[in-house]
Structures are given as structure tokens and as C-alpha cells.
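Take a sample.
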Amino acid sequence: METENQKVFKSHGSGRFKREDFKTLGENVIFEEGVLVFHPETIEIGSNVYIGHNTILKGYHHNKMQIGDNTWIGQCCFFHSAGGLKIGRSVGIGPMTKILTSTHEAGNVAIPILEHPLVFDRVVLEEGSDIGIASIILPGVCVGKGAVIGAGSVVTKNVSPYCVVAGSPAKFLRKRGDSF
């Protein structure tokens, strides 16, 4: 018997998909072996997109995931679009990158964090941006046009166009085109 504080967990399914399951799917989209897709009916993918081995596209029953034309997504990435996710054209995303669009409120210390309500916040990766290997993009972040995120960074704040940031948390290093 379920108690008041006990959650009942449900499966999100197998992650297996067919091309016709997507809201939209452009031409020449490559899904490498092991890609899992949840709620493909909420996912829009442009043309000439590469999605690497063992990546997980975790759509959500509301909001949507948009992936623009000519985007490259490395292997073993995890994208969660509960709060909405928009990836522009010609974006490069390194292997093992994680993009999150929701978190739990954590105000009341008497309640386990898992039992707090979810908070949703959209993530945007603008055109021509580049996300380094194993980076983490947190809810509510906008990575500006042509910006570069260094490998292993944790991005907690917006990144201005053409800026280079790195670290945990990611910090401004320079504008693209400036010398070191």
C-alpha cells in the first residue's frame, strides 16, 4: 500500500523509435547505434544532423526539443527537454555533454529533495556555438551565437555571443578572435 510520501514510479518506455514518430525530421539525419529517444512526438530535428552512439534524447510530454540543421552531437550525450530545449543551426556538441532543463526546488530541508516540486527552465544553444566534451548545461542557460564552452565546463549562467568560457562553474576567458 502506498503512503502519502511514497512515489509510484512509472517506466518512460524503451527509447526505441521510428523515424515517423518525430514531430518533424529533416533529411540526412544520422542516428548511430544505441541512440534512445523518449517522447519523439515532441522533438523537431532539422536536416544534416548527426547524433552519436548511445546518446539519449529525453523529450517530455510538454515543451519541445528543437535541433537545427547541420548540427553535430557526439556520442553518449544526454538531453532533457522538460523545460524546453532549442539548439540552433550548425552547433557542435562534444561527446558526453549533458543538457538539463529542470531541477527540484530545494527549500524545505525537512523534505527530501526528490519530493520537492520540479522547476522547468528552457535552454538555448544559439547558432554556431560549440560545446566542449563532457560539459554540463544547466536549466535556464542561453549560450550565445558563436560562443565556445571549454571541455568539462559546468555552465550555470548565460554566455554572451562569441565568448569563450570554461571551468566549473564556467567563467569568461576571452572573446573569440582575441589573443590569449
User: Anything to note?
Assistant: The two ends are 63 Å apart (CA to CA). The chain has a mean pLDDT of 94. DSSP finds no helices and 22 strands in the chain. The longest strand covers residues 170-175.
